[in-house]
Specification:
Elements: E1 2-6, H1 9-31, E2 34-38, H2 43-50, E3 61-65, E4 67-69, H3 79-89, E5 100-101, E6 120-123, E7 133-136, H4 138-141, E8 146-151, H5 157-165, E9 181-187, H6 188-191
Parallel strand pairs: 1-9, 2-3, 3-5, 8-9
Antiparallel strand pairs: 4-7, 6-7
Length: 195
């Protein structure tokens, strides 16, 4: 695991962009394609700032969603909808809609933490609204070559402590790529005095 503490949110975004650019370049050279999973939340703002600045062949990218809310794509809570608006509709980066792979599944109440026999699982009790989602499970995440957590702000400091210092039994502590690399990119406020 690599923990990178930087000065501020802008530096988190910059370092995230560099890591994605390098990973994409290596993957395209080796495999002819780059597969990446996007999550929602604050990562949307980080990626919509970082990706237009990187040098890459976006035609070789295939984007999956690590977590998708079960809402229409026009809903502001839709992960796919937010990225589609930010990248495709705006033309900010040269991505096409068929490069986004949106996984849909009926919601039947499985919990992410207990699912080990499926790559994608539906949940109906997400702690954040909306409660119904479709999410990648740990077998998928832990088979990635690179997993990245990027966060900023003092409001994240308590969670950074729980995950990186106290090693509490939380979803983030279960992300541990078997033969890949795990990165945490955090700003000084999120690191607080813990890192």
């Amino acid at each position: 695991m690599t923990i990178l503490v930087v000065n501020n949110k802008d530096k988190v975004i910059e370092e995230l962009g560099k890591l994605i650019e390098e990973t994409a370049e290596n993957s395209i050279k080796t495999n002819g394609i780059f597969l990446i999973g996007f999550s929602g939340g604050s990562l949307v703002n980080f990626l919509t700032t970082a990706l237009p600045k990187i040098k890459t062949d976006f035609s070789k990218w295939r984007i999956f969603f690590c977590d998708e809310r079960v809402v229409p794509t026009s809903d502001p809570e839709s992960t796919f909808g937010v990225y589609k608006k930010a990248f495709i509709d705006s033309g900010a980066v040269d991505l096409k809609e068929n490069q986004f792979i949106q996984i849909k599944q009926d919601v039947s109440g499985h919990k992410l933490l207990t699912v080990t026999d499926k790559w994608i699982a539906p949940i109906t009790d997400s702690p954040k609204p909306p409660p119904s989602r479709v999410t990648m499970t740990f077998p998928v995440l832990n088979n990635a070559r690179v997993c990245v957590f990027a966060t900023s702000g003092k409001e994240k400091a308590h969670m950074i402590k729980k995950v990186l210092v106290d090693k509490e039994d939380l979803p983030a502590t279960k992300v541990n790529p078997h033969s890949g690399n795990l990165y945490w990119i955090v700003d000084r406020e999120a690191a607080d005095s813990h890192l």
